[in-house]
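Quick question, first post here. What does this chain look like in 3D?
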Amino acid sequence: MPSLRGLGGLLLLAMLIPACSSGEAGDPAGYEPSAGFLMDAQGRALILHGVNVSNGSKVDPRRLPNIDASDAERIARRWGFNGVRYLVFWDAIEPAKGVFDQDYLDAVRADMDLLWDQGLYVILDMHQDVYAARFCCDGAPEWAIRDDGQPFELQPAWFLNYLQPAVMAAFDNFWDADGAHADLQEHYALSWQAIAERLGDHPAVLGYDIMNEPFPGTDVSSVELLGLEDPASRSEQFDREKLQPFHQRMIDAIREVDTDGWIFFEPRFGAPGNGSRSFLEPFVDPRDGAPRIVNFPHLYSTNFELTQRYDPATDPFLENWEVERAREAGIFGGPLLIGEWGLSPLAEGAELLYVSSVELADRAGSGWFYWSYDAGGWGLWSPDGNDQPHADIMVRAYPQKVAGEPISYGYDRERRCLELRYEDRRGVEGATEIYIPARRHFPDGWQVHVEAGPWSSRWDAETEILSLEIESGAAVHRVLVTPPLACGDAFGPECRDDAAAAGLLASGCLPGPRPAGVATVGLDGP
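> Answer (accepted):
Ran it through. Tokens below.
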């Protein structure tokens, strides 16, 4: 029998124990908070590349991924990723009203152990698709379905089930936080507190993704989902009057248990992921110290999903997304992270979309989590254990931890060139750590070039992590990783004698300009 704790026991524990801290606990003493990045315990800017673990959890009767130590090793060592967005489910956490399954949370914690053994940071994602398993997919427990007796007919494409009357009613009643169904959000918050109580002190756990793709119910605009303007849209009303207070309510509830974990919020389902506007406003983080609230949108083209074809000339969703998220950076401040994106490698234009998406993320200063870890299909590996070809695009050189404030970074896949520019930030400790996929992309070796400040380095061939200690004091530190160049391993007059090397080092290797609409917002190099 699962070990189940009733509501009264959870509330009693909450009163008796002090608030816990997440794995990256406490504001480091004497440090200056990052303006736009997650931070580790030493105050370094933390840039995450990772996968969602896992789509298979949705159909597993335990609501758990089928992973072991070899999977964690594949994610961290073969692909050089340092993060996981880990799916958890309300129906597994609170299967009966007011009863919380501690065996489920213990099983999740065991997965945290094996992921942290490989140094993987975890964001716990309260996942839902189409509200609940009864409606095809996953999310809420059976007792939390209030569909007003409306009809439901299973649709051939899973996402079309959102438009069924019963699903619309279930979401409308969930968003009715001050009415007859106020208990739904109250118990959703209690489930988050149960998660934070059991898992918030684990060193792998960075924080909590409040809800996957919040669906507006009858406030949804089908026109906006297609990327079109809708004069009759109620999206602004939904964002401001329903989604905004919901997120704030969850933030406040989590902070009663975990004062240090990062809290990730998502915009409404669909349109913002396609490049449309979100109307959310800044949230209040009641913790002592700097806020730890993260904008966590998804990145999916509606047109691509419908046609399985990508052509930037007819589908400007990436440019629109970048402009909108840059606009939001001026509103929210704080970090931006792509919580979910992915596509079929068999679609027309897939390679271009893969490359364009990861380069967009670099320009935006955003880490990302690919959908999903599962073998085959969209995944980076096949059921036979070998990587799929698009893994070579996703596995790329990138800074994982920066001992300062990043200004810009990017990797040019064709030239195999990484560039990082950053400023010193007060109180940061430790080395800058860069992942270099030497075995995969640099079979003939690589060189690091550092401009501004004496420096030293250490290379870990097993993890493929380069650690750089660069003396502070320069206005801007500039680091390049390149294939071997004739000019040696540092900036200086000797590099100017080799034309190819001089040209590369002079021009840098940040690929492609960003859209004009973001030229003055976000990460701009000197």
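The chain has 14 helices and 21 strands.
The radius of gyration is 23 Å.
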